[in-house]
């Protein structure tokens, strides 16, 4: 009779990226035995192929750009980057693609790690194919959390395998700058990687299907980024797609829609994400392989009865951002623990067991030149949903703190205000140094702070945060908002 290796835990987590780690941390801290299953590196996409390495590539590029615009530095700070040093720093930030440190953290937190590919095998069951080809069966008393994330979407082009295109993984881990890089896409990955590799000496061509960059954000964001990329030497082409692409003798030949050809050393497809759910056994619980997993605000999968299956992070498509996935993980961990111990759930708006921020206050930074910072409702979403908002704009070049960054500062701020509740529901900034404005905007939105109260949050002079006062003054002048009359600015 064959022995079956079966192990029982309170919670089984599939995927040991930052999201899975946080779910496991919260359930373990609550006293639930937890195992986490990982087929690649513990730490996931963010640690090795996304957030950490990409920002290591971008930080020197943005610092050089900022320094080059400061009087007294200028040309002295605008020389070429040391590509070898930048890439060595990137390697350190990605821990040289070694997860020993992350594994030690799991051990210290009391979380068991099972290496291998995990697949659902019916309700509360996970079968793990181990690296040596064996199978381990994991039973969950209370919950299984799917935290497998997303992967790059690739176009349906003939000969794609032979083309060997870059995805975000190759773009953040390449051992050296390519001579010529064609980037297909107009979103965050496309614009950030154009910024990074252009700064390292690569000749970059960016192909966008639509008419502008960063189409999901406020229009001024994409316009300012496009201006800077052009100034840096990027060839931006709008309204084009790739008809064919093939690699010959190491070079990539590209035919564009409507004619035209390009030749490059590498081609990066940054055209979206798809869920990593194609081979995780969804069919064994009545779900469709390859689908996004829809959840309620407690992160329980709505199509799986019994409140035992959770989908956390990118895989649920609520907000494809690491920090938002970690936020969801904290919610999910609290929900799983409450249900395990028979405690009532508090799922009201902004409660401990509801992911309200996923729909009301998702913060995002795009680390381009200039930086883009955004949280909450956009004008695009307001128009699409018919929501009435007052839109307040202010030119950041008129803020004293911004001019300290650059006498010719280019940037913009926009606030969206609910005219009935008189609270901020969206904030969007573009310009050097604006990322540090984002958390104050996030607090204003999640705290639902009335405009009248925000008048009493006094920004320090001269900082870029003074734009908060300028937005309030503009709202008062344009929309009759209440607030103290101000004397001369400055």
UniProtKB/TrEMBL annotation:
Recorded superkingdom: Bacteria
Span of domain Pyridine nucleotide-disulphide oxidoreductase dimerisation: 362-468
Residue ranges of the TM segments: none
Cofactor names: FAD
Keywords attached to this entry: FAD, Flavoprotein, NAD
Domain FAD/NAD(P)-binding positions: 9-324
InterPro entries per record: Class-I_Pyr_Nuc-Dis_Oxidored, FAD/NAD-bd_sf, FAD/NAD-binding_dom, FAD/NAD-linked_Rdtase_dimer_sf, Pyr_nuc-diS_OxRdtase, Pyr_nucl-diS_OxRdtase_dimer
Pfam families attached to this UniProt entry: Pyr_redox_2, Pyr_redox_dim
Family recorded in the similarity comment: Belongs to the class-I pyridine nucleotide-disulfide oxidoreductase family.
PANTHER family tied to this protein: DIHYDROLIPOYL DEHYDROGENASE, MITOCHONDRIAL (PTHR22912:SF151), DISULFIDE OXIDOREDUCTASE (PTHR22912)
Protein name (Swiss-Prot/TrEMBL): NAD(P)/FAD-dependent oxidoreductase
Biological source species: Nonomuraea recticatena
Lineage: Bacteria, Bacillati, Actinomycetota, Actinomycetes, Streptosporangiales
